[in-house]
Amino acid sequence: MKLSVAGITFAYNSHPVIRDVSFSLEPGQVLGVLGVNGAGKSTLLKCLNKILHPSGGAVFLGGKDLLKMDGAEIARHMAYVPQKYGGEQLTVFDTVLLGRKPHIRWAATHRDYEVVETVLERMGLARFALRPVLALSGGEMQKVVMARALAQEPDVLLLDEPTSNLDLKNQFEVMGLVRQVVREQKLAAVVSIHDLNLALRFADRFLMVRDHTVFSLTDRESVTREMIRDVYGVEVLLTEVEGHRVVVPL
Ligand SMILES: Nc1ncnc2c1ncn2[C@@H]1O[C@H](COP(=O)(O)OP(=O)(O)OP(=O)(O)O)[C@@H](O)[C@H]1O
Fold first, then answer.
1. pLDDT digits (tens, 9 = 90+) for 116-162
2. How far is the CA of 52 from the centre of ligand 1 (A)?
3. Bridge partner residues of 210 (DSSP)
4. pTM tops 0.90
5. Which phi and psi angles does 188 have, rounded to 5°?
6. 49 CB less than 6 Å from ligand 1?
7. For the structural domain made of 3-222, what CATH number should be given?
8. Could you say which of 69, 203, 218, 229 is the most buried, measured as most Cβ atoms within 10 Å of its Cβ?
9. Prediction ipTM score
10. Which of 185, 180, 194, 184 shows the shortest CA–CA distance to 228?
């Protein structure tokens, strides 16, 4: 379903952090949200699923305004992976099963367990299934939270720095899987991400945030070194290696 975000505005105690942010995303697309530390990327993501209540704006999914829905209904449409996850006294399996909660009426069904098993398998987490989440490494835990979001079978994935704790192989595997699931299941993914090379590899479009608002909304092919300089204040070379666009700070 198409995601349309219109005029989202948010302030923490009258300190404005997000001003009039609008964008739309077709099903099957990954949007990379870029901006310096403190630009408001996490805040924006949390405004989209009402963890924070924006003072203005709307979030339409296939014509329905998500901000008018209650939390349970939002969770059937949107899954959110936070930047920090404290972990719980649960096994990996039960943590991922929590992703099914918005869909479960009385008790988990055979299908719920099947979805969890499939996701654990796809993410290479099956061998940890019975381990307590608190006994995992930071990167393993980050993958479990991503698995929980995928088990939720949402229309929209909101991912806040989903690769920050991952090694090179897992960064590529997790972002590759996100892109594959987004394409296969026609989801929309909004991903805040600091690693520009990873972003250029896996995002289809970019939302660059500067001065609390949208600085640029662009396709991957149209990202320029000037945009990166203006957003991050760093001169870079934007070049191509083996068919991949890469950023090299100068
Ligand atoms: N709960 C809060 N109360 C008050 N101010 C906050 C709160 N959370 C964040 N902020 C402030 O809002 C601004 C945006 O924070 P946010 O976490 O959205 O930025 P970000 O772009 O995600 O940063 P980073 O890249 O460092 O994760 C920052 O100036 C931050 O200090």
1. 999 999 999 999 999 999 999 888 999 999 999 999 999 999 999 99
2. 12
3. 213
4. yes
5. -120, 135
6. no
7. 3.40.50.300
8. 203
9. 0.97
10. 194
